[in-house]
Fold this sequence. Notes:
The chain has 2 domains: 5-177, NAD(P)-binding Rossmann-like Domain (Rossmann fold, 3-Layer(aba) Sandwich); 182-267, 6-phosphogluconate dehydrogenase C-terminal like domain (6-phosphogluconate dehydrogenase C-terminal fold, Orthogonal Bundle), CATH 1.10.3660.10. Helices cover 54% and strands 13% of the residues. It is built from 12 helices and 9 strands. It has helices at residues 15-27, 40-48, 59-63, 78-85, 103-113, 157-169, 179-205, 210-216, 219-224, 232-241, 243-265, 269-296, and strands at 5-11, 30-36, 54-55, 68-71, 94-97, 120-121, 123-126, 146-149, 173-176. The strands form 2 sheets. A 6-stranded parallel β-sheet has the order 3-2-1-4-5-6, sandwiched between helices. Strand 1 (5-11), helix 1 (15-27) and strand 2 form a beta-alpha-beta unit. Helix 4 (78-85) runs parallel beside helix 5 and helix 7 crosses helix 11 (243-265). It is globular and about 65 Å long.
Amino acid sequence: MSARFERVAIIGVGLIGGSFALALKAAGACGSVIGVGRNPDNLARARALGVIDAEASDAGEAAEGADLILLAAPVAQTPQILRALAPRLAPRALVTDAGSTKRDAVAAARGALGARVAQFVPGHPIAGAEASGVAAARVDLFRGERVVLTPLEENGAEAVARIEALWTLCGARVSSMTPEAHDAVFAAVSHLPHLLAYALVHAFAERDDHGQLFDNAGAGFRDFTRIASSHPEMWRDICLANRDLLVAECLRYREALDALRAMVERGDGAGLERLFAAARDARNAWLQGAAREAGGSR
């Protein structure tokens, strides 16, 4: 089984798509890279930076002769992209994606590809930054980071193994789960935190004293709200695609926040300290476990 693909098409040459292309090139895992995007200036920059070797006008044109296609556009675009590339998809070509929601991607693939859905191996790299666009792409973006694949029952073992091998060559640690489990987990640990960061910054920005608030905000506020600088269109689409599970997480968080507010109101210092200590210990244990796992993968 070869992990090399001769012609790779990247649909959405931004931070993720651009970093994937750079990592594949550095690993010698691809021949040429064809880019597709809505912004001609961004594509020109991608070509000047050596991220892509050529441009295509749309996903269908990019699919011509490609043996690997990565969808790295906002998730709401997935259905139309898959419909565009389906008629020109080579029989042995593989399609994967980098979207943060998987149930919608799987449904879109089943609708667009039909009996050829086995060629679609869904994936999600758990890596990124608040910056967007190809100028933010890095060859080491995925190094030591997790990539979750959500294989379909129709996928052949070789297809899944080839996609896993590619991400491993990018330096990532690959694991698998079902699309349903994926969306439930990431509604909690990714989508909810982004929603909270956006909400807090927006709430402050709408206040009459916003200038004073932002002038006096320190490292804690900056760290907590860093992800509010993320791509608005991308996160709009993610929130809507996973709305049922995200709403449930919002309600759970509101219950937790209400419990904290009640402790503050009644002056329950001992209760606050116990909760803070438990949260600190849980976070420290998570960080230590993540460090051990990352160290073991090197």
